[in-house]
Every structure is written in structure tokens, then in C-alpha cells.
Batch of 2 targets.
Target 1
Amino acid sequence: MSASNQTLAYEVSPPPALPTFPLDQWYVAALGWELNDKPVGRTLLNKPVVLFRTADGQVAALEDRCCHRALPLSSGTLDGGGLRCGYHGLLFNAAGKCIEIPGQEKIPSKAKVPMYHVQERDQIVWIWFGSSAHPEPTCEPPAYDVHSSGKYLFDGDVYHYDAPYQLIHDNLMDLSHLGYVHLRTIGGNASIHMEAKMTVESEGDVVKVVRHMPNSTPPPTYSAAYPFKGTIDRWQEIEFHVSHLRIWTGAVDANTESLDDPERGGFHMRGFHGVTPETDTTSHYFWTMATNPETNHDEVKAKVIEQTALTFDEDKVVIEAQYQNMCRFGERPMIDIHVDVGANRARKIIESLRQANGA
Amino acid sequence: MSASNQTLAYEVSPPPALPTFPLDQWYVAALGWELNDKPVGRTLLNKPVVLFRTADGQVAALEDRCCHRALPLSSGTLDGGGLRCGYHGLLFNAAGKCIEIPGQEKIPSKAKVPMYHVQERDQIVWIWFGSSAHPEPTCEPPAYDVHSSGKYLFDGDVYHYDAPYQLIHDNLMDLSHLGYVHLRTIGGNASIHMEAKMTVESEGDVVKVVRHMPNSTPPPTYSAAYPFKGTIDRWQEIEFHVSHLRIWTGAVDANTESLDDPERGGFHMRGFHGVTPETDTTSHYFWTMATNPETNHDEVKAKVIEQTALTFDEDKVVIEAQYQNMCRFGERPMIDIHVDVGANRARKIIESLRQANGA
Amino acid sequence: MSASNQTLAYEVSPPPALPTFPLDQWYVAALGWELNDKPVGRTLLNKPVVLFRTADGQVAALEDRCCHRALPLSSGTLDGGGLRCGYHGLLFNAAGKCIEIPGQEKIPSKAKVPMYHVQERDQIVWIWFGSSAHPEPTCEPPAYDVHSSGKYLFDGDVYHYDAPYQLIHDNLMDLSHLGYVHLRTIGGNASIHMEAKMTVESEGDVVKVVRHMPNSTPPPTYSAAYPFKGTIDRWQEIEFHVSHLRIWTGAVDANTESLDDPERGGFHMRGFHGVTPETDTTSHYFWTMATNPETNHDEVKAKVIEQTALTFDEDKVVIEAQYQNMCRFGERPMIDIHVDVGANRARKIIESLRQANGA
């Protein structure tokens, strides 16, 4: 080992597993309301992208680099439906073609930047990262009816993670950590979480984990949001998709309704969790939380969003500390416990898609 | 590609072009008034240098490292015309010779630090970085009469850039960016900048770009500084030298004087722009701005300096964003447009001097 | 040299000397009062360690990584005499054995983390880093009677250094720097420090430097703490041990007592200086300062501690600047002067122990 390597060993030792990403997928690029009167620059799957909304309300995505002098187009301005560079004013349309060079009549045919396929659906902006075999999308982006049905109030945010995306999957696939990490909000009694009956099913690239916690004490967020009479029958239904998770949690008064009834009442929280790799070691986490207040709609919604944000702040602290520690220690065996079944199944799907990228 | 390389790829990918620097040149090391009762430490062309003023007012420059235990001499103190290390008190003269070791009679002949050739001229401190063929200066440092003629009021500052020096040249050689980057100060109408007639001449290592913008609207800084009656005839004369640029801009009331008359009146701004590489990827930018107020001298000067500083703040944001993006994307072809003629000629001169370093 | 190396050269050039550390030694891991109701995470000799106090008051140290999902155990909580991980609640005892996995009956035999040997003695927590030949301690940790004798009031703190440990040794072994670095506190007249008679003795792995400064002016800290009548006879006795230094300084009124009398009176400051490498290039500095106020005990002690902290702040600035400069310049010869005798002898001991590690 050379002197130089020794010096750097502590600071930049490689992480234990170097994820690449499944391609031929729609990933979340933005929440719809992020794109308004300014372009948004964001690195997605190692590609610097500028996202913007054109004059007719469509979303567009280009490589975030002016072809003239390499300035990020995301520091430019929306102008006449296109995107104008903030240095010398070159104007690009949604397809990446340069349509104006101020002070110059002829526009060289090489004056263009690559475009990406993006689509907005149910207020989520999806971007296609295809393999060389599938540069064009092979399907529609996922629907997310919760945003469109009118049955829920919702809001959300984008979090940046200094951790690779699969650690976020692990966290979301195993809600048993609520009893240790989220005591102040949605946690509640730790042993009830740990001893909850759990079923794990998978079909294709989807994994579903269901846990029921009958006769629980309502955790702080639940009590604040809903007039439960006493103990509650609580559920967690987690649906893993390659680019996002849908997590339906909630509760009814204990012994009043079946947790298998899809139309059951009570207090609901429906979370959308878009997990998009930024780089091999960092991630974007796009979340929305939808709820069904019985009364005081705005107030309850605001409370649920506030508590959800607090909860996700706590997760971020844990996951980033976990990743830093993985980097410090390098690749090392890990011990599995009972709660890891769902997360491990999701990892297998990702691994198999990585192997098959573009095949 | 190894796992470790993949991880680091995003953070530290090499910039697209790795400049080295023309040698056998006088570069700006400091503005004269920076050197008073304390030494100044500054890395110049990759060399850590300590600059100071001796008891008789001369400027001096040494390697910024005590030969005893490697402390930066720039954290020491001026003492009796020399520079005393702040750890164990060794005293060095302007030639780098140790002339006192407290508590020790004999001074070893090896107790010395390398010195650099520096000269102050017209309140600019110049330093010679010679090739092995020319360790001694082969000429006098440049004169800058604007500082000494008494015709102008001026002030200036030193900016640090996280970008290589040639990106600052590019920016200064092409003032067409004023219409997009500097709308709040010296910009004015973008299309007038872009469509201005431009002439580019070069002779030896000097490039001169002249642009005239007749019948323009005065930009904010101009209106604030001078009582123009209406539209103005505006000029920009840029003179590129290897280590600095001289930019003369200004305006007269439209159709009152010839812009070719070197003695023309109106409002003048004479900029001095010393661009000195700090490292391969970072730079020092030493600027002064001189103006000729008709009335309210101090107030107009203060206004012009304030607006100039704002303008250069804007440039710094753009240029550093540009460089970061160049690092993100790696080496890639760039498209030239009409405004790049002057900058490209300057780049050719630098390239040819780099090839010839010391020849 | 490749393009990439050139770019990085300035930022991460390797330090001139890459220390590894003598093994088979007790190093300071903590000051006793740091370990109370929370675990403390600390990297020591490149190993991330979590330190904690068990229910019965004993100190314990484990590898700072949960064997389940690699979270730092130092972000967990003390629980029932053990340490509980903050993610999924695994509970470890002081020997590193997992003794509870919430929600799971069987605990796999592999569920454990490595432990380190630690012992608390005289309010200092020592940790054994043994070679493969001596994983178990071969001796008791050092005693430090100053903390236990009841003759002194003391307090202390932990400082983090961005510099390798041997630069701190150098600094402490040569107190002649007091006259240049610590003028505001314990410095006093520079030439008296530099011209003080110094004796250097060594025996085994211990080096002792003694300096006497008769008839000195009391420095600010001394005057503030003790009612000296006029000039003072001042002493400095420095005892270097591989993992720590003991520095006894003080003064009596000039010409009143022999500085060779171990029971001499006057004003005393007894410093304990634990210097423990964190990594090859960073260090922990655990210090306590003990003094013997004649009157106003608490006030004088507080004053001495405050002044000591100020003094060590000044050292930290100098040593970190020195190390950054060593990194900037790379390996280069250094010139020795008269004051370096003690420090150089300490370096020889370290070097010889490094060569012999584990032999």
C-alpha cells in the first residue's frame, strides 16, 4: 500500500457495495408543483438534468449544459416556452434544439443539447432512463390515483440523502424501526412493532409487506389527527416498486372493522415514496403524504404533514449515519434478523434488474 | 474501472482541460495597499508565497515555509525589517536568509528560504515566475499609468475564484455577456450588446477587441454616475495581456463626439484586471476600477466601485458554475459563436506560450 | 503524470511523513467524566470505537458498528447495563455479545461485535491497542496520582487536531515556543525561554526535559493566580511517555527555594497531556491541568483552566497550520535548532517502537 493510499483510507474508503441502477424504468424526477417559473437543475442516475415547464404547461428535460460554454442551463431563465442560457443568451426548445443565438443569424446544426423523456402524471414528474436497447419508453409512467381521486388531502417534499438509494428502500420496507427511531411521532410501543405478524408476498417486480398490530396504543401523530376512543387496530401495507414505494398505514378503533376490508374507515395515511438515485452514493427522496381528515381538514392535514416531515428527518439522520459507518468499515458481512425479509426480497429484484440492464 | 474509481467519479472527475501557465512573465501578486503591517500569504502559480513590506517600504516575497519546522511564515510578524516565524522566532530578511535564531549563536548556512523577485509599480505588486532558462526577470514589470496620472479616482479588490484562470479571460474578452449577466448594473439592452460591431486585432502577445454601441440606453451604473442627456454612444476597448487585461469602457452623449478620439470626454471607466493562477483549478482576480467624476467626486467614485464589485460578484457566480459543470461533464466539444473571436485568440497566445515555456 | 493527478496535487498531496503508531500500549480513550448517561463514539488509532459506562459503573468499549445493519452503536442508548442500537433495538453487553433481538427468540451466535480492553484509573480511561502478538494487555495502565492525591484542584478537556500526533509531541517537548506563541498567557519574555539552561535525559521509553528560568518576570497567568512578590525562579519539567506527557511547571519567588527540591512550594501547574492518534493524520488531545491555589481556590482554579484552554487553543492553531503547510510542500528537509533535542529523542523512541510493533 502506498503512502498516499494510506492517508486517504479513512476519508474516502469505497462503500461496501457499489450500486448501479436498473435501467428501462420511469424514475421520479420532480413533484409537479416544483416546476413553475424557474428551471430546476437536478442530477438523476449520475446525469445532470435541467427540468422545466414549457409555455403550454408541458414538462421538459434537457442535459444541464449549454453547448456553447458549458454553463448549467438550470441557471438560465424560461423564455417564450424555451430555456435561455444565463451567459450569452442561447435559447433552447423542449427538444434541446438551439432556436436563437443572439446577434448571430445562422444557427449551427450542432447547436443542441440532449433531451430526456419526461411525463407528468397525477402530479408526479417521471423521467425515463433507458438502456441502449430501450432509449424510448416501453410503457406509460405509473399512475398514482391517491393524488387525483379527490378522496385525500396531501402535500409533500423532496429530501436529499447522502446515502445510496437501496438503504432508503431497506428503511421503508421494514417499519419495525418505528418503535426505536420514531417514538416522537408515529412510533408507539416498540415490542408491538417487533412482534407484529408480518406477511411478505411478491409478484414480478413488486413486493408487498403487510403487518397488523391489533389492540395497540395510538402513537402521537395518530392521536393528534383522529378521535380514537381507546386502543386501535393498526395496519401497515407496504408496496415496493423498483422506482418508488406506496405505503398505506392507518388504524380503526380496536375490534370495530376488519383490516382486510379495502374500504375500511378510520384514520388513513397514504405515503408515496419516490426513491431516485442521484449518484452511486447519494439519492433524492420525493415523498407525498395523503390523509382523510374527518373534521378540521386543513389543520389535520397540516399536522400530518408536519409530523411526517419530522419522521422522515429522523430517518435521514439514521440512514446517513449508517452509510457513513458502512464507508468507514468497508465491506463486511451483516447479520439478518426476522424483519429483513421484505427488504431482502426487494434487493434481489434490484440485483436481478441490474444484471439484466437493457437485455 | 474499479469500484473505488466509480465512487469518486462524480466528486473529483478531472476538469476538461488542465492548464499550466506561461512562465517568464510578471504576474500580479498583490495590490500595493494590501502590504502594510502584516505579511500576506498567497499561493501563486501553485507556489505558496509570503509577501511583505520591509522597513524601508520595499516589497519582498519568500517561500511561505519556515526552514525549521515548516510553519507558514505568513502567520509570523514583521520585525525589524524582516519576517519572524510565529513558532520559535527565527528571523528572515528580504532575501530569505535567516539572520537570527533566538537562543542560538551560530546560524547554519542552510537556514534560509527561497526568495521570489517582486516589484511594485504604479501600486501594483508584480512577481516574476521564470522558467529554468530565465529565473531572473528579463524585463521590467508593466506600467499602469491610470493609477499614477492623477486623472482618475480609483479603488479595487482581490477576488478568489474556484475556477481556472482562462475562464476569467474568456469572460473579460467577451463583454456581450453584459446583456444577460449584468442587467442590474452595467448591462443594458441585450440585443444592442449582441449586435454591436466588433473589431479584433492582435499584435505579439496582445489582443485588442473594440466594440461600439451607438445610440444605446444608459445602463443603471452609467445613469447613476453621469448626467447623460438621453441616449449614449458607448464603447468597450479590451486589451488582453498574458497576465492582465485593461478594459476601457464609457460613453458620451449620442452623436456628440467621435468614439475614435482618444481624448474624448464623457463618462469613463478604466478597469485593470490582473488574473493570476493560484493553482491549476483556482485563481486570484485583482481588479481596480478608475473613473473621472465631473462633480461629487467621492460619491460618484464610491458608487462606481460599489457597482463594479456587484458586477464582478455576478461574474464569479457564473464562472464558478461554469467550471463546476465542466468538471461534472468532463471534456466535451464546445460550439463557438460570433462573440468568441477575441477570447479564442487570447487562448491561442496562452497555448503557444505554454508550449514555449522557457524556450 | 496523468491529468487527474495534476488536478488533485494541491488538495490531497500526501503528508511528508506517514506515521503509524506504536502498538502494545495503553492509550487515552476518554476522560472519566465524559462517560455518563450516553455512549461516546470516537475513532482511536484508525478504529471506530464506542465507549460507555455499564450499570455497575465499569467502562466498556466495543467496535462502533451494529452487526445487523452497520449503524454506529454510539447513536444508540444505554439500556439495562448494555448498549441498544438506535435502529432496530439489538442490545449488546459490555463483552460485545448481542443479548436481545426484539421480536425474535433465537439470537444467532454470530450476532456480536468486537470488544476492546479498557480500564479507568485515576479518572483517565485507557484503551489497549495490542499487536497480534499481544492482543491482551501485558501491563496495568499508568497511574496518575495528581488526580487522586487530593493535593490539587484540576479540570480538563478533549481537543481534536487536524494534525498527526507527533506534531503535538514536538510542541509539548519544546516549551521554548511559549515566548512566541503564548505571550498572552504563560509566555513571558521570549529570550528568557530561549536562553534557559536545558537538560535532556532519557531512560527506556521515557524522555525528561528540565529547564530553569531564574529571575524571570511572571507571565500573565502566573501573576493572576499567585501573589508573587517580584521576579520568580521558574521551572519546566517535561516527562514524555509514548502515549502521554506529564508537564510540571511553576515558580517560586526568586532566590527563596531550590528548584531541585521536589517538595518546593510556590505556584504549581501539573499538566496531563494524553495524545492519542485518531487516524494517520488527525489526533485527540486529552488534557487536564491541576493547580494548588493558596486562597480563593475555585476562582484561581477556574482562572488557571481558562488560561490553559486559551494556551492550547493557540497551540492548535499553530500545529494545524504547520501540518497543512507540510502537506502543501510535501516531504522536505527541516533544519534543527538547539531546542529540538528533546523532541527528536521522543521521535526516535516512537520510530523504534513502530519498527518493533508486536515483536
Target 2
Amino acid sequence: MSRQMVRPGGRSARVQASVHAAVRELAAERGRDALTVPLIAQRAGVTPSTVYRRWGDLQTLLSDVAVERLRPDTTPGDHGALPADLTAWAEQFLDEMASPTGRAYIRDALLGDPDGGNAGRCSAYAAEQIDVILTRATGRGERAPDVETVIDEVVAPLMYRILFRPAGLDAAYAQRLVARALGGA
Amino acid sequence: MSRQMVRPGGRSARVQASVHAAVRELAAERGRDALTVPLIAQRAGVTPSTVYRRWGDLQTLLSDVAVERLRPDTTPGDHGALPADLTAWAEQFLDEMASPTGRAYIRDALLGDPDGGNAGRCSAYAAEQIDVILTRATGRGERAPDVETVIDEVVAPLMYRILFRPAGLDAAYAQRLVARALGGA
């Protein structure tokens, strides 16, 4: 998301959509290291100054694009019970975030983001998905931990190891984290 | 650390020391955004090509400097019992890493680090300190969790929240994480 509020359908929103699309296309065609603001502006059909005014620099633009790509586009699946729901979500989260593309987006989201707003949005996306799962569980009458506990015991270890300590990062590890988090519920 | 092996006392080590010192001095004098390879090389008394040959680019050099700054320079304090030792360590880790300087070093360590080697070293530093604390505890006859459990339950939540979710990140939070990790021991 850009640093300014965007009115859906307005010119501002159209500029954002075309610039984001240009970044994704050019990154796919030429690789991230070939991206420059003039190249992106040309593809998006805007002036470089529009990009600089809106995003400040390339790193901030890449961070905004990354956060958009990290936004979940589906509701967590309903497998009928909390352990199954949270395990499936954690395995999918790990698959997506630990992939080369996922890692690149996480790095971009963190690095062009001096005020931490984009990193905060990534965390909010995970918290929203977990809240859906936990609310569904309590609706079934299941005992459930709170969202922050699942962030601490499942999301944080997965993301920490993706960024800092990737050895042994597999589905079985995600399953153990979920089992430990729910054991405390 | 640089990408190549460095023989202590050799020319390679002297170049690394002078270039790292130049980065620290210039960052303090002019701010990180003013840093350039030619400026750093001039201050270090080497040619820019020496820096490019050794580090590839500025981002990689800043990442190496950051990891050196994040290396602990003291052994964890001995307070006579595992809960006190681990709590004191976690509070200090949080203080250092959550400070503006600490956050900047973490970001640098992650950013100029495509192969993840520097991020891995940051994690190894924490694991080594925790191992000292846990080994001392078992030597006293105390029950202790293993290092990876403390990474998952204390280090990962602290680092995740520093990077993604800083609200409510205080000493009391670090104390709760340690209590929960030791409760399972």
C-alpha cells in the first residue's frame, strides 16, 4: 500500500495499480535487480516524478508491492476442528513464506519500510487469518488460545527460522509448533 | 564477516578491520544514507576496487559490519539460577535488538545477505549464549529445555515482534516468554 490514502477507483488507485503491475511484470521479465524507477514508470505509463512523489524511492515501492503480494486471498479452510484448521494454515503459511518468492517478498516488505508500517501489515494479515480460525473453533465449543499466543508460538518461530535459521524447517516442524500451542489451550 | 576466509593478522584481516572501522566512523559522522563505497574506501585507505572485489557491493559490506556489531562481547551473567539467568539475558537481548541501532543492524544484516549466511550468524550468536546459560543450569542440577526450544519460545517471539509487531514489546513480555519456556522444562 502506498503511504497515502487511496480512494478506490480514483486516479490515485489507478496509478497504484498500474505501477504495481509494472513492477510485477518487469520483475518477472528481467529480474528484480534490473528494476529502476524510470523503467517502471515507462511501463506503467506515468512519469518517474509521479513514482518518486508517491513512493519516495524504489525500495519503498518494492516494499508496498511485496505487502500486496503477501496479503492472503482466501479464508482459512474449515477442516472441522481447530487442530486440523491451524495445522493446515501453518503448513500453507510455511510453504508460501519459505519459498524463494515468499522470502524475497518478506525481505522487500521489511527493507523498504523505515516506519515499520508494511511489516506491521504482514503481521496483521496473519493475525486476521488466525482470528478467523480461533473464532470458528470457539463457535464450535472448542477451547482455543488467543491470537497473540498463536503469533508467539506458531507464526514467530516459523518466520524467525525462515529469516535467520532455516535448517529443519519443514511441515513436521510446523505441526509440532501447532501441537505445542494448542496443548497449552 | 566477509565472504572469504580471513587469516587473523594477515593483510586480508587488516583490510577488513580498516574498512569496517571506516563504515562505523562515517555512519556516525554523516549517517548511513551518506555512505558510498568510494567514501568508505578513501577513509579506510584502500581502493574502491578492493572493496568491490571483497564485498561485491555496499549492501553486503553493511551486512557484514552489522553482524560484527551484533556479535555478543560478553558471556551471559551468572545469577545463580536458570530463571534469573535466562530472564536477564532475554531482557538484555530485547534492549539491544529493539533499540534504533539494533533494528538498523538487524535490517542491514538481513538486507545485504542473499545467501542467508549473516542472518544465520546472528542466530548462531544467540544460540551460543543460550547454550552457555542452559549448560550452566544443568551443571547446577537444574532441569532445562534444549537450545532450539528456547530459540522457538523466547528468541523467535522477541525478534518477530521487533521486526513485525512492536506493540507491547517490553521487559514484562520477555519475562513472560522465559517463564513459559521454563514451565515446559
